[in-house]
Amino acid sequence: MALVPSAGGLTGVHRRDALRCALVAGTAAWLPACSDVEDSAARSASDIARLDSTRLAGIVRPTTTAGVVAAMRAWRGAVCIAGARFSMGGQTREPEALQFDLAGMDRLLRMDPVARIVRVQAGMRWRRLQTLLDPHDLSVKVMQSYSNFTVGGSVSVNCHGRYIGESAIAGTVRALQLVTADGSTHELSRDREPALFSAALGGYGGLGVITEVELDLAHNTRIARTVSAVPLDAYPDWFRANVLGKGDVVMHNADLVPPDFDAPLAITWSRTSAPLTDTRRLVPEGLDYSREQNLIWSATELPGGDALRERYMTRRLLTEPRVIMRNCEASLDVASIEPRTRRVSTYLLQEYFVPTGAFHPFIARMRAILRAADADVLNVSIRHAAEDTTSLMRWADQDMFCFVLYHKQRSWQDARAVGWTRALIDAALDHGGRYYLPYRLHATRKQFARAYPQADRFAAIKRDVDPDNRFRNLLWDRYLASP
Questions:
Q1: Cα–Cα 20 to 30 A to 149, which of 47, 95, 303, 350?
Q2: pLDDT at 10
Q3: CA distance 124 to 148
Q4: Which of 337, 362, 314, 399 is nearest to 144 (CA)?
Q5: Integer distance in angstroms from the first to the last C-alpha of the chain?
Q6: Contacts of 207 (CB under 8 A, 6+ apart)
Q7: For the segment 307-320, what is each residue's pLDDT rounded down to a tens digit?
């Protein structure tokens, strides 16, 4: 899986000199196409976790594909790509690289409400896209549970959500535009350069800059929430009968809470004609979530936190009827589950995928690992994803149960989680499963190779389109570079 270790032959001060020269000399096409360019001193970049930072050669903020192309041709060193920066392990960063910040690439390019197809620039966030779709009674078909992420970033990590009958987002991508290391622009789909298309979905910026994405859409329907307390041993059979076996189910997840993680609270959203209990089409942006943030802090820091969780979270779910529009549930703001400050503690995600038949043995090992490590896990959300037949670096080579761990740690104790994270990865791998790549880089190279045997093929495609290994980040440095 070894890649070329250099990045265009430029290192250290030579990269910064080249960047300054490029920015000064540049091209007439580049500067008008970029809304902002930062040069001179190196920049320090982090991500949502704020656990570490990386010195960059600079940051460029293109607003068009032409701006990306011009910047690629003007700068010959290493490149990394950032959007909303929600990845947690350096997937958007590379030392002394030029970072492409795509946040300004957020235009609607084309929409066909009848065919339910939309094409947008890759820096658009889901919440902005929902504002454009909702007047047409259309919804995003597959996305994360929260709307703050960018479309391009979601495609680059091959995200999934709580959508029943769907797999990863790759299955909803009709086409994408990719700018590669030589400045070429590729229009990719299942019919046009299908191998490169498949590799770019879940490629974590290793092959080029995704500048445009074309997606299939769904109808915006009215949905009702039902909540059931299900015995842990009965959950797989209950899920097959009450979720997979019901054609009207749109979203589902089941929450496990500490300390025992043994009582799934199953939350199901189904199509309905019942009257709305909340008439908002979308969750308004910029709301104050201090109450929710304080409640999470209290449940994890104060004596009797489990009782607080039961009273103000679980009991409310069990007793409060809710009928809303699909877009309202899909427009949740991640601020509602974020800490008010990360100076002392940070909240992190991990995720593991196992074949549906391995539910019981995996969850038994997961519970034992978490209890033995005294891991400060706030909750584990169980989802389901159908087999992914589109992406190369797929995490679902068959129908999977997905276990999303939301945990808390002191900001200076990152190393403490390494041991139990690796134990969970082994548990998933031993049962034919996978672990998800957007998070802290705790996995060993051996674990990565077991989880993603397609990486050899990915590396071969990368050598073909990026022979000088210009598209880099901390993820690919760790797992694809020469030992």
A1: 95
A2: 38
A3: 10
A4: 337
A5: 10
A6: 178, 180, 196, 199, 200, 461, 462, 465, 466, 471
A7: 766 666 666 777 78
